[in-house]
Design brief:
Number of helices: 7
Distance between the termini: 54 Å
Radius of gyration: 21 Å
Structural class: mainly alpha
Order of helices and strands: HHEHHHEHH
């Protein structure tokens, strides 16, 4: 009986403190987080260049385009930009996960695993900035490449695309996120 009354007391304290409300994520606007992910992506490229065995197989990977036409990008609303970034992150996640299955070199496998984790973290950051992709259809490996994708044929190229995508479209989106603009004003 004492346990039950203790549990009720704890629950009452939570209700009194507002524990029944879910607090929203605080926006993550510090671009140093992205810079860290970019450095780790570049480190993966270095590990790949030094890899001598167990470095994966040559196969095609569908990845996002990294080139940005700034005149066009500026005229896309922020949610359209977010959809493009979400699709790109999903493609990179898929490609890196598929590549990791073919790698037996431990340092390279660890670097790829870390890159995949960073991509997931970027998804959380976009979510904290209220930049979710609403009803986005993601291409699968068998889908024909769209104008926003390209095919690369090696893990080395995949890692270069990842680094460029983070430095380009992801940086542009994060630096212009409305939640960060409100926070800085």
């Amino acid at each position: 009986m004492q346990t039950f009354s203790g549990l009720v007391s704890v629950l009452m304290v939570f209700v009194w403190l507002g524990g029944n409300q879910v607090s929203p994520l605080r926006p993550i606007c510090d671009l140093r987080v992205l810079d860290h992910f970019v450095r780790e992506a570049r480190d993966s490229e270095v590990i790949m260049r030094g890899c001598r065995g167990g470095c994966g197989v040559m196969k095609p990977y569908l990845v996002p385009l990294t080139s940005v036409d700034f005149a066009v990008w500026e005229h896309i609303d922020v949610h359209g930009q977010a959809v493009e970034v979400w699709i790109g992150l999903s493609l990179l996640d898929q490609a890196l996960s598929n590549a990791m299955k073919t790698v037996s070199n431990s340092p390279l496998a660890n670097a790829l695993d870390n890159n995949i984790s960073n991509i997931h973290s970027l998804g959380h950051i976009l979510h904290s900035l209220d930049l979710q992709a609403r009803s986005t259809v993601l291409p699968d490996d068998s889908a024909p490449a769209s104008t926003q994708t390209q095919e690369v044929s090696s893990l080395s190229e995949l890692l270069q695309v990842q680094s460029s995508f983070l430095r380009g479209k992801v940086r542009l989106l994060l630096s212009a996120a409305p939640a960060c603009q409100r926070q800085n004003s």
